[in-house]
Write a structure and sequence with these properties.
Helix content: 40-55%
Pfam family, one: Fructosamin_kin
Shape: globular
Protein name: Fructosamine-3-kinase
Family: Belongs to the fructosamine kinase family.
Strand order of the largest sheet: 1-2-3-5-4
Keywords: Kinase, Transferase
Strand content: 15-25%
Largest sheet: 5 strands, antiparallel
Number of helices: 9
Length: about 290
Amino acid sequence: MNKFIEQALHAAGDFSTLKQVKQTFGGSINESFFVETNEQKYFIKYHTDAPDRFFELEAKGLRLIRETNSVSVPEVLAYSDEKNNAFLVMDWVEGRKSQDTETKLGDRIAKMHQTFGNQHGFPDDTFIGVLPQPNGLFSSWLEYYRDSRLSAQMTQGIEQNSITGNRRLRLEKLLMNLEKWIPDDVEPSYLHGDLWGGNWLVGAGGNPYVIDPSFLYGDRHFELAFTELFGGYSRDFYQAYEERFALRDDYEDIKALYQLYYLLVHLNIFGESYGPRVDSILKRYVGVY
């Protein structure tokens, strides 16, 4: 493994002496390491069988977030998507949470959401976890969310038999009537795309950072709905967010429909333990059969 680490460090321009390598834990997709050399400290991710452009797209998402001058991201120093040698090298981020860390995070995520693209979606197909995420650019948020997000997960679920029977019938009915709830004409905010509680961390001075994006342009309420799905955010976060960028009046009505996408992703990756939550949302919006 040290040979691989040295190759990654050389790609980042560091040829100094390797002092220590320590495996870190917390993600389920990549192997990851804390690495220290005589020059600096790094975070390196390694994937033995990375899909094409896997780390390139992560680096691109981090760059786009950085360009908003809002929330901090680690600096990407090198990456490779070469077969059997795929890696991402970033600077090491470490700090202690301060009293206002989550207030800063909420305010800066809101500031990121106040940066807008020209269309919804993304020009490149990306990944959500280990699943391919088809994209494309759309003038309509409704069309993008229906066709590239929910429909794509439905197709995936049908292929692997996680979406069958009444669950499939309800989801098909929901997609045919989605315009009742999901807005068509909203501004396409810059979105992290995978902003669960494990994808932010604390740097020096209590400064919050976000990591592991699955970047897109879209309705910011889609992002906020996901932050509420599995926890990891405090009242201070939401209060600071709303002070900078107030929520629309329809947020509570559509929140579960935005959470549905991420629950379908989890259903398709992790299995039936997420099925009851998917079914509950479908029954709420389209009834029972």
